[in-house]
Amino acid sequence: MLFIPLIALLLIGIYYFWNAKQTKNQLAQHGAMSVSYLFQEHPGQYSGDRTVKSGVIVIHTSSHNQKLKHATLKRVSVKHPDLHIQLDQSLSLPFHSELLPKPEVSIRYKLTNKALSKLDLTGVPTCISGKLHFEGGKTRPFQVMVPISGLYHQQSNH
User: Fold this and answer.
1) Among 34-43, 74-83, 123-132, which stretch is predicted with the lowest mean pLDDT?
2) What DSSP letter does each residue of 57-102 carry, written as one string?
3) Which residues make Cβ contacts (< 8 Å) with residue 80, sequence separation at least 6?
4) 44 falls in which pLDDT band (50, 70, 90)?
5) How far is CA 3 from CA 10, 12, 14, in A?
6) Distances in Å between the alpha carbon of 91 and those of 53, 60, 143, 156?
């Protein structure tokens, strides 16, 4: 009697584990993302508020599947205790286009620790999740963890 619910729970657990693994592999099968950052040089540079320290992370894309058109980013978080990112809406990030040879999108972050004057984010993991959009209206969810590669102006090959 107890055996059937245990088997059902085991099958549900296996399904969710398999689905999570497939979600993490979706981007690697069709394209790639990299992340760099900028730190504000002057207080209030990005927000106008001189008491807020902030900057931007820049997400770069590349694709090896011509059917992959763009990604909708629903959640972006930097795994650093002193940073806060709040996406108020989803972002659309193109993968390839004749007009955009190196597609990218920037997302503003705020420093929660106002005592910091400089911050090196190189190597800090960034979790990005959303949906991949293909020709014909097909979509697939994805989630990827990408380390920040360095400062944006130092990036020569996105």
Assistant:
1) 34-43
2) EEEEEEES-TTEEEEEEEEEEES-TTEE---SS-EEEES--SS-SS
3) 119, 121, 124
4) low
5) 11, 14, 17
6) 23, 13, 15, 24
Single-letter amino acid, residue 43: P
Torsion of CA 22, 27, 36, 120, to 10 degrees: 20
pLDDT of residue 98: 58
Whose tokens are 């981007």? That residue is: 27
Give me the sheet containing 91-94, strands edge to edge: 83-84, 104-111, 54-63, 31-39, 139-151, 125-134, 68-78, 91-94
Q: Which amino acid is at 118?
A: K
From the centroid of its chain, how far is CA 142? 10
* Structure tokens, 69: 């058109």
Single-letter residue type at 64? H
Question: Which residues touch 129 (CB under 8 Å, ≥6 apart)?
Answer: 73, 74, 75, 76, 141, 142, 143, 144
